[in-house]
Amino acid sequence: MGESRAAADHVHATMRIALLCVAVVVPFGLDLARLVENEYRPTWVAVTAFTAMSAITATCAVWVVRRKPLPLGVVVVGTVVVLTASVAATAVLPPDGFFRGPHWSFGQAGWVLVLLLLDRVALLVTAVAVHLTANVVQFLQPGLPGPAEIGAAGTVALGTVSVQLGVLMITEMLRRSTRQAMEVAAERDRMVTRVALAEQWEQGQRSAFAGRLGVTLPLLADLADGVLDPRDDDTRRRCALAATQLRRLFAENDDVPDPLVHEVAACVDLAEQRGVDVSLAVSGTATPVPADVRRDLTAPVVTALSAARARARVSVLRTDDEVRVAVVTDAGVEVDAAASPRVEIDCGTYGEHVRVEARWRWTSS
Amino acid sequence: MAVDQQLSAVVVDDHPAVRAGVAHWLSSGTPPIRVAAAGEDVGVAWVGDGAEADVVILDLHLSGPNPALGDLRRLVQAGRRVVVYSMRADDDIALQCLELGALCYLTKAEGAEHILQATRAAAAGLPYTPPALAGALAGDRSAHRPALSARETEVLVQWFQSESKDFVAQQLGISLSTVNSHLERIRLKYAMSGREAPTKAALVARAIQDGLVHLDDL
Asked: Which of A112, A214, A336, B45 falls 20 to 30 Å from A145 in CA-CA distance?
């Protein structure tokens, strides 16, 4: 709505400047000469009417040149003054002056009304109609003129009013197309913003992906260069870790009801493909876990499962205040216990078992 | 006389392979457990040899998608000791079965060792808490759940995570029998909360006799 308001203000301000020029040029260029040439009785009425209309135009100019909308008081007083001045000036016309040269007030009053009421369409149409009616009544009052005179007067009256209403219609059309243009421009701006955001996001995803590829890229490079031997146990262990990291990463953006279990299951799946006997147990109602916390919770699972030799037990437990993901397996692993500020990581070796657990208190965050 | 002292069980399961497998596990345990009867319908536990068996091993999903909780309730009301044996690791159903008075809820993913221990415990009127059930208890968020001590919760969680009581004992620096008595106490707390059932009443009575709880605790 703000945009359509701004569009209307813009069009009205510009149109008013043009109208102000008309309302200055017409009276002083044409009407003043007529005022002097013709005989009005009493003359002072016609002079006062001319002065009053010019004063209203001058008052309007104060706001129009600053492209400000006219205050309501100015509009009301101006309209009343213009209508009164026009009726007064018409009343002192010479007998055959109606809608001819001496009747300068008809045209001038019309233009000042358009200037005053340009942004109040219904009022303007009403005021112009009232003005026309008043002048016609004054024209017909002394007695019905002949058909030729009525024809001539009608042509002038309708011609003048049509031009004035024509300006109104042009203004309305301009207002509408300006609003559409502004809407299109705003939509384009929004699109540009969205495109910029999407590009930024993509850039972020790319760098994040590259970061999360972890050990994969250097590993592939070393394998390709022949630095690493695929028959070597350590190389195999590193491959298993890279594969598990990738598999977890692919599962990360899947749209599933329980993303944490989905990611853990992806890691388990890969370990099972390597021939490790894994039992996965999930307990407690699913709790929403943010993606970065999920990453921290599953990181120890990735490390522990990629090191597992023959057996592993993976468990996900959701209680009323925390999420605990644990792996109990048969091979030693090194887990960075201080890797995450949000997730508490516990690692210990007990007999032939190694236990790695990541805990996240979801009530505290 | 030795034959009379041998424990007996009735296996109710709609899959012949599962019945045969469970029967084999039970009969090859040390000491072996006799399978008095086995059938696809719960009726086998009510008539003939099945009615006399010490323990009922009941598959919860006999036919159709709905768990046979009504059958479980009727068996428990009749004073039978029931081990629920189910395909599904569903926490809510597991807790519901305990509420109804089942002495154990065992998932089919858990193997021979657990079913032997569960059956032996049930024959003695004792509960058995396999790892999946421990997970269900640890993850229980219902409003009326009993309050567990920090140590009890830790025992439950570790047992769920490791499936090894030796591991839990080592990890927490306690003896194996302490691990078991913690698990027993937890089940006792569950038995004392919620609805009445003969097996639960027997459990509490026995715990009082053994001095595991005092009358004041009730």
From this structure: A112
Q: Pick the residue of B92, B133, B145, B161 with the most A CBs within 10 A to test the interface with A by mutation.
A: B161
Give chain B's domains with CATH numbers: 2-217 (3.40.50.2300)
Regarding whether A247 and A181 lie in a shared domain, the answer is no
Of A281, A318, A355, the CB nearest to B132: A281
Where b means 16+ CB within 10 Å and e means fewer, B22-39 reads: bbebbeebeeebbbbbbb
Measure in Å the smallest separation between the Cα of A226 and chain B Cα atoms. Answer: 40
Give the span between the Cα atoms of B57 and B104, in whole angstroms.
10
Considering only alpha carbons, which residue of chain B is nearest residue A358?
Answer: B161
Same-domain status, A311 and A253: yes
Q: How far apart are CA B11 and CA B39, in angstroms?
A: 7
CATH number, position A310: 3.30.565.10
Structural domain count, chain A: 2
What are the chain B neighbours of A326 within 8 Å (beta carbons)?
A: 161-162
Flag if A317 and B171 touch (Cβ within 8 Å). Answer: no
Residues sharing a CB contact under 8 Å with residue A46, sequence separation 6 or more, in sequence order: A35, A40, A89, A92, A105
Tens-level pLDDT at each residue, chain A (365 residues)? 465 677 778 888 888 888 888 888 877 777 777 877 777 778 888 889 889 989 999 998 899 888 888 899 999 999 999 999 988 888 887 777 778 778 888 888 888 898 888 888 888 999 989 988 888 888 888 777 788 888 888 888 888 889 888 988 998 898 889 889 989 999 999 999 999 999 999 988 887 777 767 678 888 888 899 888 888 888 888 888 888 888 888 888 888 889 999 999 988 998 898 899 999 999 988 888 988 899 889 888 888 888 888 999 999 999 988 999 999 998 777 776 666 788 888 888 887 888 999 999 987 55
Task: Give the residue numbers spanning the domain of A343.
Answer: 227-361
Decide if A283 and B138 are in contact by the 8 Å CB cutoff: yes
Residues A165 and A238 reside in one and the same domain:
no
Q: Which residue of A has its CA nearest to B133?
A: A283
**Residue A54 to residue A27: CA distance in whole angstroms:** 8
Which of A185, A203, A238 is at the close of a domain?
A185
User: Among the three residues A185, A201, A235, which one is the final residue of a domain in this structure?
Assistant: A185
Distance from CA of A284 to the nearest CA of B (A): 4
Q: In one letter, which amino acid is A192?
A: V
DSSP, collapsed to helix, strand or coil, labels residue A242 as: helix
Chain A residues in contact with chain B using a Cβ-Cβ cutoff of 8 Å: 279, 281-285, 313, 315, 317-320, 324, 326, 328, 348, 350-351, 353, 355, 357
Closest-CA distance of chain A to residue B127, Å:
20
Residues 6+ positions from B170 with CB-CB distance below 8 Å: A350, A351
Query: Could you tell me the two tokens for A171?
Result: 């203004």
A350 vs B160, B163, B167: nearest CB: B167
